[in-house]
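Quick start: read one record
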Amino acid sequence: MDEKFRVIIAGGGVAGLMLAALLERADIDFVVLERGVSTTAEVFGGGIVLHMLVLPLFQQLGLIQEIYRVSKAVDVISVVSNEEKQLLGRLDLTRSDEMCGHQARCISRPELHRILLSQIPPHKIIYNKRVERFEQKEGQIFDQSARMSWWSSLLGLFQGNQYNSFSASPSSSNGSVHVHCTDGSVHTGSILVGADGARSKIRQWMYQDLAAKCLLPKSDMTPMRCDFVCLVGVTEPLDPEVCPLVKDTKSRFTVMCANNEPQTTAVMNIPDNKVAWMVIASPIDFPSPQGPLSKPPTPPSLRSAWRPDAASEMSNALKSIAVPYGGEQFGALLENTRPDKISKVLLEEKVFKTWSSGRVVLLGDACHKLYPSGGQGANQAIMSAVSLANLLYQLPSNRLEDVDTCFRAYRAQRWFQVWFASMLTKICTFMFSGKSRLARLTRYMVLNKLPNWVTRLGSRFAAQDRPQAVFLPFVDDGGNVRPYRQSQCFQRPMASVRMVAV
C-alpha cells in the first residue's frame, strides 16, 4: 500500500487499547485519543473474568505469563442464597483447559489496563483529548443512499440490519477523516474507530448523520435502558487470618442471590490478598436514604456514574448486607476498599445494528453493550478488536470501497457471536438477579438438573471461536477443540497485503 494509512482510535479502554496493541504488532500506524489526563490516572472498575476464548490471543502476544502472574484461575462458580448462605449449585469450568488450553482467569480491570498499556508506545497515546466532532472527506462522493444489490440486502436482513451496506464510487480514493477535539486540535487519519464506551460520542454523531439521511434503523434510534445499578471495587490487601478467602490459590468466584433482598452480590479473590467485589441491584428496588428510584436515571447521571463520589450514597446503603463468605457484612469489604477505587456503574444492554458509516466504525461497548452477569463485556470487546485488526491488516488500499468492505466483513464476523453472548448475559442476569418464582426455578434447573452433556456441547461449540492475529505466528494453545479457521476478507495472500506505516 503506497499511501499513508492511519487509524485514529477514540477511547483508551480495554477495546481501544487491545486494538492499539494489535495494530502496533501489525505495523499499522495509529493514534489513541484518550480523555483521561495521564497514564497515572486511576482506572476505575472491579474484577474481570478473562474467558478461555481470549487467553490464546494473550499467549500469542507473549503476555500470558504476565496475565497468569496477576490473576487467579477460576474453575467453578458457586451460587449461594442469602438465607444462611445455602449452596444453590455450581457452574463447572474445570474442563475449559482441556478444550482451549487455558482456564478462565480472574483479574482486576486496572491490572488488565496496565498490561495492555505496556504494549503501546507512549507517544501514540494522547491524553486529555475529548472528541468534539469529526468530518469525512473523499476524492469523490460516497453515496450511502445508493441502491444495494439483492444479495447484499438479503445478507443485511439475515444479520439484522438492512441499512449497513453501502456503495462507494469505484474511483473514490485519498479519503480521510478529521477529528476535532475540544482543545481546538485536529487529528487526521484514514479511518476513525469509536471505542469510547456505551455512551459513545462517535456513535451519537454517526447516528445523527445517518438518521438525517433516513439510513438508521428504528431500533438504533431507541435509547438504551438502565435496568440495573452496580457498585464495584477492589480491596486493599487483606489479612489472610481475618479473610481466609484470599489464601486460596484459585479464585473462588461466588455469587449470592438474595431472594428477599433487592441486590445480588459477587466476590472473587485475586492475587496480592485482594478481593474484587460487585453488587447489582435494580434502580427501582434499590434502597437509598431518599427512598427507591421511581425511574431509570437521566443521561447526565449516566455520564457521571463512574465518578467515585457517585458511589458514596450507594455504599452507605449497602454496609449491612451479607457477603457470600464467612460471617462478615459488606461493610467490612468497604472499609478495606479505598473510596477512589469504588465506582457506581449504571448497567445497560443493547447490541446495535449499525456499526459503521463511511470511514467511521464502532468497537466494544460502543456497538455491543452487555450485562456483566455473563462475564462477556470485556471478552467480546477483545474478540471484536482482533477481528477488526485482522481485517485492517488485509486491507489492500485506502479506497473507500475497500474500507467499506472491511467494515461490513467485521460486522458479519462478529454479529452472531455478539448476539449469542447478549442472550447468555440476559439469561444469567435473570437467573442470578431475578426475584420471581420463575427466576428461582430457572436457577434450580440450570444449576442442578441441566445434563452434563448439554453443558459440554455448549462449551465445545463456544470453544471453537478462539481468534488469533493473522499477522503473528499462530500458537498452539494445546486445546483438544479445533478453533475456527481465520477468515480472509480480501482474496489474496496475506504477505502481499501487509500494510506498513509510512
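The first helix runs from residue 14 to 25.
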